[in-house]
Amino acid sequence: MKGTSSTSFGVKAYLTTDAMTVVKSNIKKAIAPKVTPKPTPKPTATPIGEPTPTPTPTPVVVPTNVPKTYSNLIANWEFETVSSATIQKNSYSSATETFSYPSNFSLNTYATTSTKSDLGTYMKGMRLGDSASTSSTVKIASSYAGQTFLISCDAKMNSLGTNSTEMNLKINARGTSGTPIIVPNSNALVINSASFSGITEQWKSFAAKVVLSNADLMTTFVGPYFSLDMTSVGGTFQIDNLQVVPLLTGDNSIANFSFLKANNPTLMADIPSKINQATGDIVMKLPEGTDMTKLIASYEVTGGNVVVNSSFQSSGITVNNFTTAQNYYVTNQANVRKYQVKASALQTGLPSVMVNMNQSKVIITQETYLPATIEIKGGTVDYASPLPATTTEIKGRGNSSWGMDKKGYKIKLTKTASVLGMPTNKTWVLIANYADKSLMRNYLAYTLASSLNGLDFTPRMKFVNLFLNGRYNGLYLLGDAVEVSPTRVPVTKTTGNDTGFLLEVNFRMNMDWYNPKKATPFVSTTGGYYMEYTDPEPRASSSPKPLELTGAQMTAIASTIQSIETAIYTKNPATYDPLIDYASFNDWFIMEELFSNLDSGFVTSCFMHKDVGGKLKMGPIWDFDSSSGNSDNSWFVKTTGYMGAGGSWLSNVTQNGTGLTRLKARWVAIKPIINKMMTMIDQTTELIRPSFTENFDLWKIQGIYVWPNSPAIASATTLDQQVAILKDWMTKRITWMNSVLG
């Protein structure tokens, strides 16, 4: 059976809610022993889109005494207390006769009178047919010949009565004219006073496995049925949870377990799972604030029936409470296999960002945007604010970080919108911080720089939990892209040669593996620096868009940059002051040096911009995950000495005469802001603590080297250890900068 967990036999099911048992595999005795399941280890997370291995299934034993709820069974009897008169009214006088009752027929406590004739022997049953009708033409399907069934129930003896030895419960299967069709015997399950060892008022669970013979299966009489025979003198007893369930064949496995939005309207998207077939673990993370008490799971099951809390399940139909782990048991003739569904909603206080694409298996590249929808919901932090589901596009972003397992993304909304309280825009970035085991270096740098008024613009960033196609992907920063915009880099793009522009120092532009045959134009200075036209971008060879850079504009920009470099190399402020904004140069230099940023030596991620008729300004700062001692290069781990931020350009502007005086004055002015760094780290630590745990429960890299981790960062395994390393490094770095700048 695939795509559902139950078999329909034309019998309507009714639910019960009390406790009962699910029996162990290969049942050979009438009484099933109690078994406590052993815990299973958590699976290792697999990045989105990668297949989960499916090793050989491991048979497991089903535990007893779990809560029950039943649906979609062949026969599902519920019993409730009724009078003898009611029983007599619905029965025949002869013990050999049978009758069929409506599917909602209920009967429970059998309270006998003083003589056997008052109650008699009754056979109550529901035919195993494709209809509840009593028509003589109803036949059982030939496919049931030789079928194995599991018969089980709970029973309790209320009182022994005058002749307890005659109190029997027999569950049979009979064919035409009452002919038994059970192999190996006609009484599939017999329960009497001996079954309770003379103890009353104690529920026990009973079960047996039987096989239907081939005899009488294709007759045109009333057809085979399961019946319940009860005889008693004087005593009373109850039965509940009577189940007759087919046991299927196959490898009894579950695949493609998910919560579909179509069946769960409160969800933001379909929520897939990661299944570890070796351990049976099915792991799911849901967005912040999801109601876990009433969820409907969908899945594919092969070769078995699915049971949860003793309830036989229907894929896409049965509702369960997933506030705690749920055990899913797949039963067949050979064994009962256990899966444990560990579904939980994040409880981090941070907003959840759900990006959904049409593809079931996501393949995202850096080159091509894919259509998607985005929705933001949940969270208790002060910046948490919902973004209704809206159309967008998504592609990959990052340079070296794109090669890491946890990747960064760029989002382009169809319409401009404010996101998490940040100014309205279309383009947004999702930063993974995979190599930064503290997850906060970028955030700290952007937060500190936003307090420095020498920089026109610093990207605003907010911590969020990201879900891609419903799959939790970890803790991210969501925020501003570096681009020309009135609320970001504030320059004016024109069609004339004197246009505003944004450049990135990027050594890769001169590398054939990155820019084959130098097909994409870039600025090359006599000082050996290569700068990429970031915004506007160079005009495409065909179908150019408005305000893309023309050849004449690129020539003009390159000439301007070369003139500025030449002026800077004079080391004379009188020469370069008319061309550069030294306030932005100072703040950019302080930020890059304070954090000892790996890329800061005019290698990559170093931005500068210029407006029409204006001076060249440094900024915005960008890409600080490999900073603050997070490097396997000893030069960037040390806390003393200049790291070379800005290469020879910034060295000439900040380290000589007037330039150094200006730099020292600026450092003294912002020291009150710098001195708040430890408090900022402590506050950020508590902000992300719950999400830190969730992130590294998925990305199991704590204690493992990831480029470019220092040995200390690679070996640390907790948030507090990572923070201690960061604070120690930053404290020493601030101390050194105070010593040289005042």
How is the topology of this model organized?
Blueprint: E1 19-20, E2 66-67, E3 75-77, H1 84-89, E4 99-100, E5 110-111, H2 116-119, E6 122-127, E7 148-159, E8 168-174, E9 182-183, E10 187-192, E11 204-212, E12 225-231, E13 236-247, E14 253-259, E15 271-272, E16 274-276, E17 281-286, E18 295-302, E19 305-308, E20 311-312, E21 319-320, E22 326-331, E23 336-345, E24 352-357, E25 370-377, E26 387-397, E27 408-419, E28 422-431, H3 441-449, E29 461-468, E30 471-480, E31 501-505, E32 522-524, E33 530-535, H4 551-568, H5 573-576, H6 582-595, E34 606-610, E35 616-618, H7 634-637, H8 647-654, H9 657-674, H10 677-698, H11 711-715, H12 719-741
Parallel strand pairs: 4-6, 17-23, 24-29
Antiparallel strand pairs: 1-2, 3-13, 5-13, 6-12, 7-11, 7-13, 8-10, 8-12, 9-11, 14-15, 14-18, 16-17, 18-21, 19-20, 19-22, 22-23, 24-25, 25-26, 26-27, 27-28, 28-30, 29-30, 31-33, 31-34, 32-33, 34-35
What labels describe this entry?
35 strands; single chain; 12 helices; alpha+beta; 28% strand; 742 residues; 6-stranded antiparallel beta sheet; 7-stranded mixed beta barrel; disordered N terminus
